Every structure is written in structure tokens, then in C-alpha cells.
């Protein structure tokens, strides 16, 4: 049986393993976090084609300027605006029609048309929402002025007739609608999943290759190796969670101990996958390939960006095989929704089920030895 | 060895490298199938919401029916209290709620603008967006109906188009990917990044394999070696790219504007740049499999910094400086504009120039480092 100090020493002697287990994860987490460090996509450039040049059109443009989501450029020509949209210089353009002000005065309800880039889905939707909000506000302002202008209607009543229904919107569990909070809650675990499986495939392959002593390959050595490396990987998970919920300060409404427990199970489940692949394929590069095939698209299968209830059955089955998907289910539900443990029992159980795979992988161990003896 | 002899020899090494072929052919085929799977539906299905109706008037019941009829929403069940509704959202049974306050109908008649409360689970942006958008559309519809009723009761003639109930009308139209499909949003960009990452792995796996190292030592000039490898991998990847950008995109019915010839004008500098960069990486690595670690760990930062998810102007300068050096950034932006937005090549010259700049720079650097590595390996071999 290998001693703990021997395991540690040989882990840290390998430059790649040392990096994977120490500083590299932090670099990956921080670089993803840095990309979204502004949290909100502000100052998205739009182009306004003002064909009216009236008091009202200038009021509209001032409102676009005032919106934190928009940054305004002007053009006198629709073709220029079209080209700018195609070239990706702007995310939207607005055409303020000729005679806007005159037509509004004559109750002709002229059309202010805008086009936004739907290919850049997230930014396009934000720009669209900002424009729609501004248009509604200005419309209401004009209408209230009209109603009050017609007689002695008090302001409140005038408002009521223009805007019969008001709406108040609340973004539950992410009250600022912070994009970074939303995307990093899935992106960092996805990166962590890659680090776990890659490290574990390398580690198990390394010890499988260690030739000097037969008994290095026995089961208790494997368990010790899993324990030592697993502890370091869980530590990384804790750093990741601290980055989200302590450093960034996003709310953690649920139970920290449950998060840690889920991380331990997630690391163990990933170890089971790595061990199984290493012993099944007996080739480091091929085991890495298969581990990558399974875990590289994990972000897509998490259901963070695209909802689970809209995914086809195959995707729902495939994600069951990716441990981090179960972990993210638990992390999001604990941090945001803080339900009773019963709610997450299902995901915890699924992670624990990977234990069976670990047992299956251990069954493969004697086969390896037998084959080598024959050889 | 002549150029063509070397070409044949290296090509044999590439084709017989099982790990490499597994990554390139197996990996690319698998991802072409796997990656789009979650998004096949294109748009999220109707989100279920709960309605707390404390008014219970004819009009509030009409509102409920309108919500249920909305293409974005479906009403789960009537829940009596706000607490119950929040619990339902917590447990993930529903995506949001609509709260109709007491005296909604009375306030509406009095003209005192009653307030409807919408709430959605913002843990999931797409769900939240759809819940809020759906409820907004429905409440605007109801508001319009009410205004029309009032106008007609006051005897004001209403134009058939109902357009005089607002000072001006505003219409926001999505162009390119006008149906806002998620597959169309993610797949064209992600495929290009998958091509980059697998090409990096392939070049490094090849360059670092013991047979290739030996072949490199026996070749008289490093220029020839670099040219041969560049040619082999460019041909291989133009083939794989036509599979991705042609067959696979067509299979998923993703709209394409550009012709194969136009795409080739982007693919060429793109693959040259990646091959050059990969040669640099290969010359400092001892084991090819480490390329997989590099390729996988950089994949997420590269996807997020490529500019199609998060606007470039919102990223820190430092991030942008690094991302510009990665071929995928220019390629993704150039391709989305050319192939998804119908731009012409002359409209994206900045990206094309950047790709060629990267290609030339990385190929020169790749040559220098390959040469340096060869000399180092020769010295090592001699000392043995």
C-alpha cells in the first residue's frame, strides 16, 4: 500500500498535476469571472435616423442617451444604419419618421420603427427592452399631456385613462438582473468539472503506470489516491463557491454544508468516471478523449442558459451522466431558492449512484493485472 | 527527402495516429451531434406561471384566460396565497407569478391605474425573460382593450387599425435570426471554436508523437517540415469545416448567407493561424496529451470572450487584449457577420486582416519555435 506522503510527493513532482491541483483552476475561474466583471451589458451602440428633427424627435433621442443600456450615434441615412447593423457596428437602429411631431399632433399615430440584431440574442433582447421602455414612457407622457390639455382632468385621472394598468416587475432570486451572477453560477462549475475529470484521469493513469511495485495497484492504494486528490479538488470547489458567494457577494440563502456535501459527492462521482475510463481503456490519451467528450459540453446540458423543460429526452438522459449537472441543480436551488433538503435529495442520490460505477471500475482492476501477467 | 515524400510520410503518421484521428473525426462527429441537442427546440416552451387573483371580477378572469392563451405562458393552477406561489417557484414547479390585486376592477373603472405585479425566477434568464415578456404583452393587450372600450363609450370614432389610442406606435423588429432561435444563436459560433480547439489538439498530438519527433530530426529543413504539416492540417480542416459549416448547419436548418468560396476565405487564415499557434505550443510540450488539457481548459474562457455572448465593449481591456490574440475571436465575429447577417467580405475586412495578421505571425513564430525545438532535440540525441 502506498503511503500518503508518497502519493503527495509524486502528485507534486508532476508539473502538470501540480498546476491542475493548485493554481491553474484559480486562473481559469478568475479569467471567466473577469470576462463578465462588468455584470451588465451597458452602453450598447444604436443608431438613430432622425428624419423629423422636431422637438419630439429630439426628446426621444435625449431619452435614448439617458438610458444606461444604450449609447447613441446618429445618421441621416437609412442605408448607413442598415450597413452598420450588418457589419455589427451597432446593435439596433431606430427610424424616426418624417413628420413625427406633426402626425402625433394630428392623432395619426405615426410609426417609430426599430430593428435590432437578433443574432446576438442576449444583447439584442436588452436593447429591445430598453427601446420599448423608452417608447412607452414617452407615449404615456404625450397622452397624459393631451388628456389634461383637453379640459380640467386632474393629473392622476389623466394618467389612469392613458395607462389603465400599471405593472410592477420583480426579478426573484437575482434582483438586479445581474448577468454575471446568472452565467457564472453555471460556467465556473462547468470549468471545475473539466479540471476534476482531467486531473483524475491523469492521476489514475500515472499510478496505473507506476511499475515498480505490484501492490501499488491494489484497491486500498486506489482509495488513498482518491482520498488525497479528492480532498484537493473539493478545496478547489470551495474556492469556487467562495468566489461566487463571498467575494462576489451574491446571496447564499441555503445551507453551506449541503453545498460542500454536494461538492464531495460530485468529486467522487467524477472520480468514478475517471477510474472507470482509465481501467477500461488502459490508455491515458484515449481516456482523456472520452472524459472530454462527456464533460466538455456540460455547460450546455446544465439547463442554466436554456431551460431543462424545453430539452428533448436525449439531452435530459445525457445530463444524468454528467456529475456537475446534478451539482449545479443543487447549488442553484440552495443559493437562490433555499428549499428544504428533501428537494435536493433527488440530485444528491443521483450523485451517490455514481458509487456503483466506482465499484464497477474496481472490478476491472484484477483484469489489468492478469493481462499483464500473461504478457 | 523531397517535399512530396515528406508530405506522404507525415500524412501516414497523421492518419495512423489513433488518438489524433479519434479527436478529429470521432470528436468532431460526436460534437456535431451532441452539442446542438439541448437547443433543438430553439425556443423555450410555454412557461407555467401561477396567478393569484384577489379580485375575482369578470375582467380579472378575462385576464387569466388571456394569460393562458398566450403563446409564451401557461397557467399552472390557481393558488390562493402569495406564499404558496413563492413556494411553487422555489420548488421549480413554475417560472413566475401574476398577482391581481383586490379591487382591480373597481380601480380600473375609477381610472386610478391599478398595478399588476409580475415576478419571475431570474435564476434562469430565458425563463425570466419569457415570463415577463408574456405578461407584459397580455397586460398591454388588456389595457388596449380597455382604452378602446372607453373611447367607444365616449362616442369617439375608432379607426379600424386601432392606432389612434397611442400618440405614436413603436415597432421593434429582430433582424438576423428573427425568430430568436437559440440553436441559431449558439451553434454557428460554438462550432468554430470546437474546430479551433480540436485542431490545436490534433497538431500538438501529431508534433509530439515519438514518430513525428524522429521524423522531424531527420528532415533537412524546418521550413519544409512546417510547410508540409501546415498543408496537411489545412487540407484536413477545410474538409472538416465544410462538413460543419455545410452539412451540419444545413442539417439543423440554420440560415446561411455566405457561399463556400467566401467561407473558405475566412477558413484559410483561421486554420493557418491556429496551426502556427499550435506549433508554438507543441514545441514547448513534451507530451501530446497535455494539449487536451490546454484545449479543454481554455474552451470556456474562449467561448465567453469570443464576443457573441457578451459584448466586447463590456469586457475589461486586459481580457480583450488576450482574446484578440486568439484566432477564434476574429473568426467568430467575421463568420456571424458574413454567414448569419449577410455582410459582404468587404464589410468585414478588419476581421479578415486580423486573421491574416495572426496567421502570418503565428506561422513565423511556429517555424522559429519548431526549429529551436529541433536543435534542442538534436543536441539531446547527440549527448545520448
From TrEMBL, chain A:
<keyword id="KW-0812">Transmembrane</keyword>
<protein>
    <submittedName>
        <fullName>ABC transporter permease</fullName>
    </submittedName>
</protein>
<feature type="domain" description="ABC-2 type transporter transmembrane">
    <location>
        <begin position="16"/>
        <end position="362"/>
    </location>
</feature>
<dbReference type="InterPro" id="IPR051449">
    <property type="entry name" value="ABC-2_transporter_component"/>
</dbReference>
<feature type="transmembrane region" description="Helical">
    <location>
        <begin position="225"/>
        <end position="247"/>
    </location>
</feature>
<dbReference type="InterPro" id="IPR013525">
    <property type="entry name" value="ABC2_TM"/>
</dbReference>
<feature type="transmembrane region" description="Helical">
    <location>
        <begin position="347"/>
        <end position="365"/>
    </location>
</feature>
<feature type="transmembrane region" description="Helical">
    <location>
        <begin position="259"/>
        <end position="281"/>
    </location>
</feature>
<feature type="transmembrane region" description="Helical">
    <location>
        <begin position="288"/>
        <end position="308"/>
    </location>
</feature>
<keyword id="KW-1133">Transmembrane helix</keyword>
<keyword id="KW-0472">Membrane</keyword>
<dbReference type="GO" id="GO:0005886">
    <property type="term" value="C:plasma membrane"/>
</dbReference>
<dbReference type="GO" id="GO:0140359">
    <property type="term" value="F:ABC-type transporter activity"/>
</dbReference>
<dbReference type="Pfam" id="PF12698">
    <property type="entry name" value="ABC2_membrane_3"/>
</dbReference>
<feature type="transmembrane region" description="Helical">
    <location>
        <begin position="179"/>
        <end position="204"/>
    </location>
</feature>
<keyword id="KW-1003">Cell membrane</keyword>
